[in-house]
Specification:
The chain contains 8 helices and 8 strands; from the N terminus they run ααβαβαβαβαββααββ. Strands 3-2-1-4-5-6-7-8 form an 8-stranded mixed beta sheet, with helices on both faces. Helix 3 packs across helix 8 and helix 5 crosses helix 6. The chain is globular, with a radius of gyration of 17 Å.
């Protein structure tokens, strides 16, 4: 396990302490690698929180160029990025947040083979794509590599979070044997995207560091429209 430099101890001073992380747990984050894909409304805040928290390597994947309708929720973007490829610009922004973290950018969504290769390099995957095809692909890759998998989703003012781990919980394919119908251009409020992505990052921090109690085998549902929260037990495997 890597050690923390004096500068890193200063950087993470506000999250090292009772009820948060120990110095050893912070060092565990430093030694971890996380894949976040995609890094839009939910994945952007997730990647930002992981970078700020001190995860040693954050790999982000997102294809395409920035468009104006995305600016209601994609916190890594800006007016200056409109019409430009998202992945490298998003990565450049993340690098300004924490010089102690390596940020790797992939300018497309991984296919089956690449997802499996990436999973072998990672300690955890945070899945934030809109389509079930991509979500299931990433879930398969994580379980094949034997690493934890966090699935974040959103629609309107509702966000959901599922935390899974091979040998301890069902897989995403167990929960969704067939991809449900999907509305590609669904409406969404940016605040629910950011909240869901931040909670996904929190679960990742807990799992990687060994702090707290992760939501393993559970689905967290937050209905922001009505201000209701529910947790559904998904069972063990």
């Amino acid at each position: 396990m890597p050690s923390l430099s004096p500068e890193e101890k200063e950087r993470y001073d506000r999250q090292i302490g009772e009820g948060v992380l120990s110095e050893q747990q912070q060092a565990k984050l430093k030694g971890a690698t996380v894949l976040v894909t995609r890094v839009g409304g939910m994945g952007g805040p997730a990647a930002q929180m992981l970078t700020m928290a001190g995860v040693g390597r954050v790999i982000i994947a997102h294809g395409g160029e920035m468009i104006s309708p995305d600016l209601n929720r994609q916190v890594l973007g800006s007016e200056e990025v409109l019409g430009k490829p998202r992945a490298e610009h998003f990565a450049a922004y993340l690098r300004t947040m924490n010089r102690f973290v390596e940020v790797e950018a992939i300018d497309h969504e991984p296919d089956d083979d690449e997802a499996e290769e990436l999973a072998q390099r990672c300690d955890l995957i945070v899945s934030c794509p809109p389509t079930f095809e991509e979500r299931l692909r990433l879930g398969r890759a994580a379980f094949a590599a034997g690493i934890p998998f966090i699935d974040a989703a959103q629609w309107g003012m509702t966000g959901t979070l599922i935390v899974l781990e091979p040998g301890k919980t069902p897989s995403l394919e167990d929960l969704y044997p067939e991809p449900p119908p999907f509305e590609e251009l669904f409406p969404v409020v940016g605040a629910i995207s950011c909240a869901t992505g931040a909670l996904a990052a929190l679960e990742a921090v807990k799992i990687l560091s060994g702090a707290g109690t992760p939501l393993l085998g559970k689905m967290l549902i937050y209905d922001g429209f009505h201000g209701r929260t529910n947790i559904v037990e998904l069972g063990t495997h």
